[in-house]
């Protein structure tokens, strides 16, 4: 009896996997084209992946009457979220040059002391970041690794890299306030 139950579960899993693979193959090109037009070539693959993740996470994804329309609606919602997030980032985050670690030799003693104090605060805040967030921040800011390459090296999505960078920059700014 137990072997039969295991085989039944395995068959159900295989059936679901084939269904998702077929839906993916039939719709990936259209969705990727749509997402590329809406969010650009760099962000479209991440949103495509997220579209299918959300589809699969739907409690009854196999029962969806029109999977292409459902996927399109998920993609549309993701592009709206993406646009809102970018707008918020533009308002609240300023990605500028990273300050040098050393105050200039011509700086007054008070300026050097203030600079050293800020450096200590920033170092402590960076060390307190979660491990993955700290890794993303250090690779990007101090190793000058492009964010797409950070995502590839850490095997995470570009949007996750962006999220880690937002967290890191927010916490570092907070440490200086």
What report would you give on this structure?
The chain folds into two domains: 2-92, Orthogonal Bundle (Rna Polymerase Sigma Factor, Chain: A); 109-176, Arc Repressor Mutant, subunit A (Orthogonal Bundle), CATH 1.10.10.10. It is mainly α and 177 residues long. Mean pLDDT is 82; it is low at 93-102. The longest helix is centred in the N-terminal third of the chain and has 38 residues, at 2-39. It has seven helices and no strands. The protein has helices at residues 2-39, 44-57, 67-92, 109-127, 131-141, 147-154, 158-176. Helix 1 (2-39) runs antiparallel to helix 2, helix 1 (2-39) crosses helix 3 and helix 6 (147-154) crosses helix 7 (158-176).
Mean pLDDT: 82
Q: Give the C-alpha Rg.
A: 23 Å
Strand coverage percent: under 5%
Instruction: Report the major sheet.
Output: none
What is the N-to-C order of secondary-structure elements (H for helix, E for strand)?
Answer: HHHHHHH
Cα distance, first to last residue?
Answer: 65 Å
- The DSSP helix count reads 7
What fraction, in percent, of the residue positions are helical?
over 70%
Q: Judging from the principal axes of the Cα atoms, what is the shape?
A: elongated
Please count the beta strands (DSSP E, at least 2 residues each).
0
By CATH, the architecture of the largest domain is named Orthogonal Bundle
- List the uncertain runs: 93-102
Structural class: mainly alpha
CATH level-3 fold name of the largest domain: Rna Polymerase Sigma Factor, Chain: A
**How many domain modules?**
2
CATH class of the largest domain: Mainly Alpha
